[in-house]
Amino acid sequence: MRRVVVTGLGTINPLGNTVESSWSSLINSNSGISKITNFEVDNYSCKIAGSIDDSYINDEIVNSREQRKIDRFITLGLIAANEAIIDSGFTLDDQSSFRSGVMVGSGIGGLDTIYKNSSILDNQGIRKISPFFIPSSLINLLSGHISIKYNLKGPNSSPVTACATGTHAIGDSFTIIKNDKADLMVCGGAEAAICPLGISGFSAARALCDTFNDYPEKGSRPWDKDRSGFVMGEGAGVLVLEELENAKKRNAKIYGEVKGYGMSGDAYHITKPSEDGNGGFRAMEMALKESDLNSEDIGYVNAHGTSTQVGDTIELSAVEKLLGSNKNLFMSSNKSAIGHLLGAAGAVEAVFSLKSMQTKILPPTLNLDNPDTKSKINLIPHESISKPVKNIISNSFGFGGTNASLVFGL
Amino acid sequence: MSDIEERVKKIVVEHLGVEEAKIQSDSKFIDDLGADSLDTVELVMAFEEEFGCEIPDDAAEKIVTLKDAVTYLSTNSN
Q: Could you tell me the fold of the domain covering B3-76?
């Protein structure tokens, strides 16, 4: 059976523009959440987000002329992909390029570009629409750009499953390599929806935190009784997955193995998770089964944990149901520090999951002052802890009742 | 260098990211200056904006060099 390992990591997120800088910030309990400043938010109920300052966008990776022709989500994705590919150190020849693919998705894609061109169409007319409008906004153009830049001619696609996108991209890429359709996949997710239409849309759906505008860094507080919704973040996470023998042959650095992948649908509601947590439970169960591990083998759950009222409780109960016999289980939410990166969330959290195994440090859940449900699971409030773990589950659940779970192991 | 040529050159420099010194009067946008077909559409839009005119598609297709643009805009701009 073909096994799949992770040989490269890359990210840009509200805590930093590299894996090392953002990981170091995360385990030191820093928050990447601040007041929104890139547009006027006086009339918005939510005024906070996990934004990336433009000065953190490296023009040497994507020059400013290129940035003009692509939406911000593509720029962020290209930056993360560049780091992951350099980190992995793979080189391609004519043959291996056909066996190396890309699957980097996004939840929403070029939302701000669509908004701006829509205004141009209404106010200035048809002739002012940029020829780059469509290729700048389409979600799969990120995978397209990565393939062009790095000559990756294998499978090329982009999942779009809202907040589960990044996890599905990694899981689907794992399956592609396992099924011998490629030897290497550059995979993950990117998102840049901190724009007027993005914030107003999620606010209208009553999904965003609106009670901590004066204390932005306190807004994202998974499992805490004062949570009031998620805080949006932006960024990208990219992994390089490789078939194990392929990676060994070239003496690649191996962060860990993708051991299992599970998916499910709630068939319940467009935005709410099913109340019994059955969807998330089945995704985790499927991933655990494929990994051939038992619940006792899992040391840490990198939770979806968005800081919404119902979602957090439901996920916690699903984890307890599946892994409750495990007396030594840790779980935390990276979103407490970086916010919810929507389609990039699962990918950035996968990067952090692999760093957790590598460094033997489990990152904290910030702002967890008063958990609203009692649990035997250690939710790692406030500060990271040193703890070696061999296997991790990482969860992502999305609007539409879509659920995805990955098992990573050493 | 005429005022029109200078303004056209400035737009080409901005949009195609090429050094001004490399742009000759007969440089072709696509073959010599690295533009792709979408870049040329955007260039024509920028000329329209700068010179306050509308360049019909059949005329735009014939603007392939800096000189073509200057010649067209010299007779058609406001």
A: 1.10.1200
